[in-house]
Specification:
The complex is a heterodimer of chains A (178) and B (353). Chain A is of the alpha/beta class. Chain A has helices at residues 15-28, 75-81, 114-121, 127-139, 144-154, 163-177, and strands at residues 2-10, 32-37, 47-55, 69-72, 90-94, 108-112. Helices cover 38% and strands 21% of the residues of chain A. Chain A has a 6-stranded mixed beta sheet, with helices on both faces. The model of chain A has no long low-confidence stretch (mean pLDDT 94). In chain B, the strands form 3 sheets. In chain B, strands 3-2-4-5-7-6-12 form a 7-stranded mixed beta sheet, sandwiched between helices. A 5-stranded mixed beta sheet of chain B has the order 9-11-10-13-14, sandwiched between helices. The longest helix of chain B is centred in the middle third of the chain and has 21 residues, at 216-236. The model of chain B has no long low-confidence stretch (mean pLDDT 96). Classes of the chains: A alpha/beta (178), B alpha/beta (353).
């Protein structure tokens, strides 16, 4: 098993911490994991992305050039990374903020109104975890239990009161694609 | 000890603290700024000193001062900043001062860019500054190996009284991987530094730390002494990793991040039953020439793979010493070699036979 996941969006949408949560969960399950951010000369409000690799074997390059799964939280990210996804891969599109469709026919595409769902749950900031929930349900790359455990590691103690609402977001995402 | 997820740059900082490093002087530059950032918080917690100097030139001369007083001290930078430090590094080598210098290499020459590269190999392994000297150069290929080698770096520096460089690249600095860190690293170097200028403390003579030897006869004597030290290090401190080299007819040679990609290439060939292996130098100086020379008796071809236009290949040539042909594949400017491309390059060599 090797999943190379690229998560992309605006700076501030939590794409780096979502990737870290996923990597941490992979580690908790005893898998080989790596996480690498884009660190180009980005500007505030610009795009941010990170690559997470989770594998049964040691990871050669941590740089994700051909993702098996892509999460795009905004339109520039879809336009930039759609073509890089591996054939038969998966693209998760945050349809709350992206008003165009994917053009690829050789990949599976899921449109998830992540911000709307997150706001219905009670906090727009957890939109990324709605999509993460869908990703985990479809790929089984890590178990929901490992993610729950990892939330405690990734979130600083004063944010632990946010764990239940994050779990709700993950569950809502999983429900959508069941 | 639990596994934790850690960024390469932060692992250098935490590893250094566990190795007993108490002083850091530096100046920020991408892609290594997380390291000074981390130490700015951590060093005061362990009673150490973190200081952001006015420039890289200031930093390296502060390192000279702390090392001269016998402290475990480190600095870090990337490409352009390391170039600025070269005068100070030469002085440190001349005065035989132990210290650790980290270079998280980015694209060059000049301002270049901030993407990962291996194009500072010549600068690192040929001294870098003026005069007849060498640095010990260590090249980890994972966050865990960063932790392991940073301990070794401080010990080597103290044991041989020589500056040690840890050479990484932007990928290693920026990536996160699971690591296991020992609570405290037990140093294998003598703790007492009798040569350090710490005040006379009742001694009959004063300790002098200097790189100045104004009389030519004296300087030549000093150069001969340094050369003997380099010779000893060359003999005793070569470190490498062999990956599927046993029956290999084609051997890839690569270090750092590039070596990780090459391992995937070796796996691709092995799945097809093709005898391809990898030699990964862990010390770039001293370069693991002995093993490479003996592998040249068995292999038909060597392929050096680098994130540069071809620098380490010089050392591969010196080691193989004409026994077998040596080929090159490289990407530069911050581009990372992709396994499929290296595979194709290697396949051409296998077809020729």
């Amino acid at each position: 098993m090797l999943e190379a996941i690229l998560i992309a969006g605006f700076g501030g949408q939590g794409v780096l911490s979502t990737g870290q949560l996923l990597a941490e969960a992979g580690m908790v399950e005893g898998k080989h994991v790596s996480w690498i951010p884009s660190y180009g000369p980005e500007m505030r409000g610009g795009t941010a992305n990170c690559g997470v690799t989770i594998s049964d074997n040691p990871i050669s390059s941590p740089v994700v050039t051909e993702p098996t799964t892509l999460i795009v939280m905004n339109r520039p990210s879809l336009e930039k990374f759609e073509k890089t996804v591996k054939k038969d891969g998966i693209i998760f599109i945050n349809s709350s903020l992206i008003d165009i469709k994917a053009t690829r026919k050789d990949v599976r595409v899921y449109y998830i109104p992540a911000n709307e769902i997150a706001e219905n749950i009670g906090n727009g900031k957890i939109a990324n975890n709605v999509i993460l929930g869908a990703l985990i349900e479809l790929t089984r790359v890590v178990t929901p239990g490992a993610v729950e455990k990892s939330l405690r590691e990734v979130l600083p103690p004063h944010r632990h009161k946010m764990i239940p609402i994050n779990l709700k977001a993950l569950e809502a995402g999983a429900e959508l694609v069941k | 000890m639990a596994k934790i997820l850690m960024k390469g740059n932060e692992a250098i900082g935490e590893g250094a603290i566990r190795a007993g490093c108490k002083y850091f002087f530096g100046y920020p530059i991408t892609p290594q700024s997380e390291l000074p950032h981390y130490l700015a918080k951590r060093l005061p917690e362990v009673g150490g000193v973190y200081l952001q100097a006015e420039s890289e030139i200031g930093s390296i001369n502060m390192v000279y001062g702390a090392a001269g007083a016998g402290a475990r001290v480190m600095t870090s930078s990337s490409g352009p900043g390391i170039s600025l430090m070269q005068e100070g590094i030469s002085y440190l080598a001349g005065a035989e001062l132990p210290c650790v210098i980290v270079n998280i290499v980015r694209g060059g020459p000049g301002l270049g860019n901030i993407a990962p590269a291996q194009s500072d190999y010549w600068q690192a392994t040929r001294g870098g500054g003026h005069g007849d000297y060498q640095l010990i150069v260590l090249a980890p290929d994972s966050v865990q190996e960063i932790i392991d080698l940073i301990n070794k770096a401080f010990d080597l520096a103290d044991n041989y009284r020589i500056p040690v460089m840890l050479l990484g690249d932007g990928v290693l600095g920026q990536m996160m991987e699971p690591v296991i860190i020992e609570d405290q690293y037990e140093t294998k170097a003598p703790k007492e530094k009798k040569w350090a200028s710490t005040g006379r403390m009742g001694r009959g003579s004063k300790n002098l730390v200097t790189s100045l030897h104004i009389v030519p006869e004296d300087l030549e004597k000093h150069n001969i002494k340094l050369a003997a030290k380099h010779e000893e290090i060359s003999r005793s401190e070569q470190i490498w990793e062999e990956y599927n080299t046993k029956d290999a007819r084609l051997i890839l040679v690569a270090y750092g991040t590039t070596a990780r990609v090459c391992k995937a290439v070796v796996d691709m060939f092995r799945e097809e039953g093709m005898p391809v292996g990898l030699l990964r130098p862990v010390t770039l100086w001293p370069f693991p020439s002995q093993i490479l020379n003996s592998l040249a008796d068995q292999a038909d071809n060597f392929l050096a793979v680098e994130m540069s236009m071809g620098q380490m290949i010089d050392d591969v040539r010196l080691a193989v010493n004409g026994k077998k042909p040596i080929h090159f594949y490289g990407r530069s400017g911050g581009m990372l070699p992709v396994a499929r491309d290296i595979y194709q390059e290697a396949q051409k060599l296998l077809m020729e036979e």
